[in-house]
């Protein structure tokens, strides 16, 4: 027998609509909660990225990633700092990342070798008729009677320049070093006979300041060091040179490499694998001091001291002894020759 459902059964529908409303509210609540959580995550990510962005800007601030051109200046009627060749209108950047210099461009540049050899262990530069500057670490453990100075050098395989014997070595008394850093890395060498009169010396800087030269100044480095930073690679037989910018001492690539900003300075590119390397030590870092917009001369603002093992300033800046700090010491020795 069929029993008709009582009307009371159909009245269960309203509670089902209430459940649906409740589920809807719960779904909305869950979505709102997930939206809030996602929004919070986005804010946290943004909050984490902002300091990283600021750090990146600080780390690489005031760096140059494009190749600088050779300094454009005219040097005439000056007793020092005038290159033998006209400046180059274009400059392609091995030092590590440089190019062959024209023969005898830098008359003050000399090679330090063992006696009767032509394989330099360091470089140096003439500052007077009988004195050169170099890096102190070049002379540690060296016997002056077993070393010589080679001038008028371009291609070491065809050397027919001048040899000069060493009279005395003057290593800065407070020179210090460890496995990764050096400080007061400067030395002066007195030779036994005067340099030829046409070997013009390099000028010394006129300013003693930890902010000179200013950041981004174009600086020229040169030497016969390695072209590739590998243990078995030999030095370049032909003189190399390269243009690099001065790096702000607050830049992390410089700051992490130097000991004292008053006694050292940095140079190098942000993302180009260009640097001085083993064998270039002691050579000058040249900048132009201008008399006016076109007239000027080279001064040795720095001396090649040290850098990373890869010879790559995109990793960390090359470090140079700041010559201006040591001017009183240099002139005191020269006056007492």
From TrEMBL:
**Which parts of the sequence belong to the Peptidase S1 domain?**
95-335
Cellular component GO terms, alphabetical: extracellular region
Q: Does the keyword Cell inner membrane apply?
A: no
Keywords from the named record: Disulfide bond, Glycoprotein, Hydrolase, Membrane, Protease, Secreted, Serine protease, Signal, Transmembrane, Transmembrane helix
Kindly report the protein's main subcellular placement as a broad class: secreted
Q: Does the keyword Oxidoreductase apply?
A: no
Q: Where are the transmembrane segments?
A: 32-58
Q: Which Pfam families match?
A: Trypsin (PF00089)
> SMART domains this protein is in?
Tryp_SPc
A molecular function (GO) term: serine-type endopeptidase activity
Q: Which InterPro entries match?
A: Peptidase_S1_PA (IPR009003), Peptidase_S1_PA_chymotrypsin (IPR043504), Peptidase_S1A (IPR001314), Ser/Thr_Proteases_Immune/Dev (IPR051487), Trypsin_dom (IPR001254), TRYPSIN_HIS (IPR018114), TRYPSIN_SER (IPR033116)
List the subcellular locations: Secreted
A single GO BP term for this record reads:
proteolysis
The entry's family comment says: Belongs to the peptidase S1 family. CLIP subfamily.
Please state what the protein is called.
Answer: Peptidase S1 domain-containing protein
Species source reads Rotaria sordida
């Amino acid at each position: 027998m069929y029993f008709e459902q009582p009307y009371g059964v159909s009245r269960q529908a309203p509670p089902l609509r209430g459940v649906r409303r409740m589920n809807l509210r719960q779904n909305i609540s869950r979505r709102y909660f997930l939206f809030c959580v996602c929004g919070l995550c986005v804010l946290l990510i943004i909050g984490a990225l902002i300091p990283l962005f600021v750090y990146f800007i600080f780390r690489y601030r005031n760096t140059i990633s494009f190749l600088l051109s050779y300094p454009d200046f005219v040097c005439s009627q000056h007793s020092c700092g005038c290159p033998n060749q006209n400046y180059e209108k274009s400059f392609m950047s091995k030092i590590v990342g440089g190019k062959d210099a024209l023969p005898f461009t830098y008359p003050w540049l000399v090679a330090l070798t063992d006696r009767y050899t032509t394989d330099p262990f360091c470089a140096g530069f003439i500052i007077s008729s009988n004195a050169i500057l170099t890096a102190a670490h070049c002379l540690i453990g060296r016997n002056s009677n077993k070393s010589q100075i080679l001038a008028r050098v371009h291609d070491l395989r065809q050397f027919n320049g001048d040899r000069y014997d060493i009279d005395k070595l003057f290593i800065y008394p407070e020179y210090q070093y460890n496995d990764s850093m050096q400080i007061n890395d400067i030395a002066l060498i007195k030779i036994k006979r005067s340099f030829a009169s046409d070997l013009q010396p390099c000028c010394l800087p006129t300013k003693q300041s930890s902010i000179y030269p200013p950041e981004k100044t174009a600086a020229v480095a040169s030497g016969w060091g390695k072209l590739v930073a590998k243990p078995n690679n030999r030095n370049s037989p032909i003189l190399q040179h390269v243009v690099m910018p001065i790096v702000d001492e607050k830049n992390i690539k410089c700051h992490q490499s130097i000991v004292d900003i008053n006694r050292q300075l940095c140079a190098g590119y942000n993302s180009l694998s260009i640097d001085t390397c083993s064998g270039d030590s002691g050579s000058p870092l040249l900048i132009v001091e201008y008399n006016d917009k076109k007239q000027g001369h080279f001064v040795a603002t720095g001396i090649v001291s040290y850098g990373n093992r890869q010879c790559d300033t995109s990793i960390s800046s090359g470090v140079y002894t700041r010559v201006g700090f040591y001017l009183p010491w240099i002139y005191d020795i020269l006056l007492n020759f």
